[in-house]
């Protein structure tokens, strides 16, 4: 059985996104997202809260969208996987850092009054995801129901669905009985072999069964 490395985070940004450009033309946008957990202390009855910070990297087009619309305080949905990297600190000691590599992002909201936010446009509630080629798709957040309208190229599988729907009636016309001309006594279409060398043009004028001549009957009784 294959392993699963999947992370889902819903939280708020603790600072504005940071963008880094690569020499090959790519880019990465890094954000820090906070998630909070609350519970009641059994001994004191006090309400307690614990906050976890998550380092998230968004590459190429997905990162460009995050850098354009997300700001400190923005709420975001992130779906991705854990990645661990190794580096050497200033003292020459090797250290490891774990971060989330985002594969899908949805902007849920923004801090009030944040400049460049998404409160007054149609990007809130829209999901973006990376493609293997480095691009992105825009898909609906509700995976079990209808998809959100795609302003960047349509639904991902819309063309395949149309092709399948168009192919079904053709198969029904070739093999189904509903459109079979022989079931209704109509003239057979040209090019169809009906069992003899000539196409049937009028089934009602078929010759009757041939009756043998009297002379051809054998008079000998077999017993």
From TrEMBL:
<feature type="compositionally biased region" description="Low complexity">
    <location>
        <begin position="196"/>
        <end position="208"/>
    </location>
</feature>
<keyword id="KW-0235">DNA replication</keyword>
<feature type="region of interest" description="Disordered">
    <location>
        <begin position="157"/>
        <end position="223"/>
    </location>
</feature>
<comment type="function">
    <text>Plays an important role in DNA replication, recombination and repair. Binds to ssDNA and to an array of partner proteins to recruit them to their sites of action during DNA metabolism.</text>
</comment>
<dbReference type="InterPro" id="IPR011344">
    <property type="entry name" value="ssDNA-bd"/>
</dbReference>
<keyword id="KW-0233">DNA recombination</keyword>
<feature type="compositionally biased region" description="Low complexity">
    <location>
        <begin position="157"/>
        <end position="181"/>
    </location>
</feature>
<dbReference type="InterPro" id="IPR000424">
    <property type="entry name" value="Primosome_PriB/ssb"/>
</dbReference>
<keyword id="KW-0238">DNA-binding</keyword>
<dbReference type="GO" id="GO:0003697">
    <property type="term" value="F:single-stranded DNA binding"/>
</dbReference>
<comment type="subunit">
    <text>Homotetramer.</text>
</comment>
<dbReference type="GO" id="GO:0006260">
    <property type="term" value="P:DNA replication"/>
</dbReference>
<protein>
    <recommendedName>
        <fullName>Single-stranded DNA-binding protein</fullName>
    </recommendedName>
</protein>
<dbReference type="GO" id="GO:0006281">
    <property type="term" value="P:DNA repair"/>
</dbReference>
<feature type="compositionally biased region" description="Polar residues">
    <location>
        <begin position="182"/>
        <end position="195"/>
    </location>
</feature>
<dbReference type="GO" id="GO:0006310">
    <property type="term" value="P:DNA recombination"/>
</dbReference>
<dbReference type="InterPro" id="IPR012340">
    <property type="entry name" value="NA-bd_OB-fold"/>
</dbReference>
<keyword id="KW-0227">DNA damage</keyword>
<dbReference type="GO" id="GO:0009295">
    <property type="term" value="C:nucleoid"/>
</dbReference>
<keyword id="KW-0234">DNA repair</keyword>
<feature type="short sequence motif" description="Important for interaction with partner proteins">
    <location>
        <begin position="218"/>
        <end position="223"/>
    </location>
</feature>
<dbReference type="Pfam" id="PF00436">
    <property type="entry name" value="SSB"/>
</dbReference>
């Amino acid at each position: 059985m294959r392993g699963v490395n999947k992370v889902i985070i819903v939280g708020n940004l603790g600072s504005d996104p940071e963008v880094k450009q690569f020499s090959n033309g790519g880019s990465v946008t890094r954000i820090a997202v906070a998630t909070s957990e609350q519970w009641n202390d059994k001994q004191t009855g006090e309400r307690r809260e614990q906050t976890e910070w998550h380092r998230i990297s968004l590459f190429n087009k997905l990162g460009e969208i995050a850098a354009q619309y997300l700001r400190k305080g923005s709420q975001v949905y992130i779906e991705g996987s854990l990645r661990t990297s190794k580096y050497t600190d200033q003292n020459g000691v090797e250290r490891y850092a774990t971060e989330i590599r985002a594969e899908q992002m949805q902007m849920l909201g923004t801090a009030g009054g944040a400049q460049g936010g998404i409160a007054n446009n149609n990007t809130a509630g829209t999901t973006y995801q990376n493609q293997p080629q480095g691009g992105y798709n825009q898909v609906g957040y509700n995976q079990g129901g209808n998809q959100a309208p795609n302003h960047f190229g349509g639904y991902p599988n819309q063309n395949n669905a149309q092709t399948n729907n168009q192919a079904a009636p053709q198969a029904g016309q070739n093999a189904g009985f509903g459109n079979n001309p022989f079931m209704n006594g109509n003239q057979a279409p040209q090019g169809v072999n009906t069992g003899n060398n000539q196409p049937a043009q009028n089934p009602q004028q078929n010759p009757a069964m041939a009756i043998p001549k009297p002379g051809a009957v054998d008079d000998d009784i077999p017993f």
